[in-house]
Design goal:
Keywords: Iron, Iron-sulfur, Metal-binding, S-adenosyl-L-methionine. There is one protein chain. The chain has 3 domains: 11-123, Cobalamin-binding domain (Rossmann fold, 3-Layer(aba) Sandwich); 148-396, Alpha-Beta Barrel (TIM Barrel), CATH 3.20.20.70; 409-476. It has 18 helices and 12 strands. The protein has helices at 11-19, 38-43, 56-68, 78-82, 100-111, 166-170, 179-192, 209-226, 244-252, 267-272, 283-292, 312-323, 340-347, 367-381, 384-397, 414-431, 438-450, 454-475, and strands at residues 46-50, 72-76, 92-95, 120-123, 149-151, 154-155, 175-176, 197-200, 231-235, 255-263, 296-303, 328-332.
């Protein structure tokens, strides 16, 4: 993909960088792109880190490297806010979102230039309203290095799914930015790179439907003024399908992808994990409604629920066939701290802390059987023929339902043409010539090339190749069975 080297920029720490005093000199490093160098540690007065649970080993390694150079280390963000006990060696912990703790931290660092004798914790009691959040420091990053850009509109989710820590970390009453803030961030992003798509990383884009309805006319107007330069994607609950007015506005704003945490096609299983919002209408019907507005659905699937049986893998694969969803994130269940699931399993003595396992849950089915169910689902879901069948369905029944966007200067710029040619050339070479599934690829690609459907060919070629290679790695036990896997890999 040319200059693309990572999926999305780490927006949280870019916001922190923008919030720091303007007179502070800030050097931003995303280790998804390249690791910090020894010279970076030597340059710094303070090393401020953020990350998620799965990055815990690297977070702690950064702390060690910074301490070797005698630097103060600060850790904030989602992982430490949920589990401060994971990070006993950091000098300072920032727990919670931006707020009064951030101000106390800045004041402390202004007055202290040596490492503290023992760990200090600043915990947010009063959150900074999202309406006062700064625009992320996009001037510190080149967005051309990322597959997608991202934006946050809201924080929090009204639902209480058993496995999710969002309500306890960020609250059940969604807090919102203003539409003007979102547009300012989009403008700032465009100055920092040639965007193709922007992902709304809200825990639930429609957690407050009234606020989403107020935002969408601004997004529509922004797209029209700028010549529809980007596609939007978001995360939402499946009951979005019951809001036709909202869906019509999302279509007009050029939302093309929606991630839905479907989790399981089994109604009794959804009820057992407190995900009854997925039962307000038949799941397959809801997916078809979303497709009818031009939105390709991406689904989250969980394996290892207490309601699973030896037939669960068969039912998931049949659901994938019937739903025609191309991309699914299929994960083993993992209990996160500060969730109802964690508390229930802790009380039942079913939490397992073993770094040779993929999950910390003692499943009701045998552990190895659950792992093999996951492996079977992930490898069969992404067999080239099966995957391309589902993409073909969406090319025929979903993508044509999107609005016809203009051939504006923003869309037909030389930068976009060059990027498209790079992608297409690499796909035709690496997939069409060298991939072990090239015959299946050409069955899809030839009609698309003849009809001039290049944009969809690039989308299917890129995403499909990633998924197929990922599944092959899963078959060889080279990938984790969960985003939160505790298994240590070399």
């Amino acid at each position: 993909m040319g200059n693309v080297r990572a999926f999305m920029p780490p927006q949280g720490i870019l916001i922190v960088a923008a919030y720091l005093p303007q007179e502070w000199e800030v050097r931003f490093i995303d280790e998804n792109l390249h690791p910090a160098k020894k010279a970076d540690y030597q340059w710094a007065d303070v090393v401020i880190v953020s990350g998620m649970h799965i990055q815990k080993p690297q977070i702690n390694q950064i702390n060690q490297l910074a301490h070797r150079e005698g630097k103060i280390t600060v850790l904030g963000g989602p992982s430490v806010s949920g589990c401060p006990e994971y990070y006993p060696d950091f000098d300072i912990l920032h727990l919670g979102e931006l707020g009064d703790a951030s101000d106390r931290l800045i004041e402390y660092l202004d007055q202290n230039h040596e490492r503290p004798p023992q760990q200090i914790r600043f915990e947010t009691q009063e959150r900074l309203p999202l309406t006062e959040f700064p625009t992320p420091a996009y001037h510190l990053v080149n967005l051309n290095h990322y597959f997608l850009a991202n934006v946050q509109f809201s924080s929090g989710c009204p639902y209480r799914c058993e496995f999710c820590d969002i309500p306890e970390l960020y609250g059940r009453n969604p807090r919102m930015k203003t539409p003007e803030q979102v547009l300012a961030e989009l403008d700032a992003m465009r100055k920092s790179g040639n965007l193709g798509a922007v992902y709304f990383v809200d825990d639930n884009f429609v957690g407050d439907r009234r606020a989403a309805m107020q935002l969408l006319p601004h997004l529509i107007d922004w797209q029209k003024r700028n010549g529809y330069p980007i596609q939007f994607a978001c995360e939402a609950t499946l009951n979005l399908a019951q809001s036709p007015k909202l869906l019509a506005m999302m279509r007009e704003a050029y939302f093309c992808t929606v991630f839905c945490g479907i989790e399981t096609p089994e109604p009794e299983a959804l009820h057992s994990i407190s995900k009854d919002q997925n039962l307000s209408m038949p799941i397959l019907e809801a997916i078809k409604v979303l497709n009818s507005y031009g939105m390709e659905v991406v689904s989250g699937i969980i394996i290892g629920l207490d309601t699973d049986t030896p037939e669960t893998a068969d039912r998931i694969l049949e659901f994938i066939r019937l739903s025609q969803i191309p991309m699914l994130t299929i994960n083993l269940l993992h209990a996160l701290p500060r969730t109802p699931l964690w508390r229930r399993l802790e009380a039942e003595g079913r939490l397992v802390f073993d770094e040779s396992r993929e999950s910390n849950v003692e499943f009701l089915l045998p552990y190895q059987q659950v792992v093999e169910m996951w492996r079977r689902c992930i490898t069969q879901a992404y067999q080239p023929e099966f995957l391309y069948q589902r993409f073909a369905y969406n090319m025929e029944h979903t993508y044509p339902n999107r609005i016809a966007v203009p051939n504006s200067p923003a869309r037909t710029s030389w930068a976009n043409i060059r990027k498209g040619l790079t992608y297409l050339t690499n796909i035709l070479l690496r997939v069409g010539v060298f991939a072990n599934y090239r015959q299946v690829f050409w069955q899809m690609a030839k009609p698309a090339l003849k009809s001039g459907n290049i944009e969809n060919l690039i989308h299917v070629g890129l995403v499909g190749h990633h998924l197929i290679k990922f599944a092959q790695d899963c078959a060889e036990n080279e990938e984790s069975a969960s985003f939160y896997s505790q298994k240590i890999r070399s």
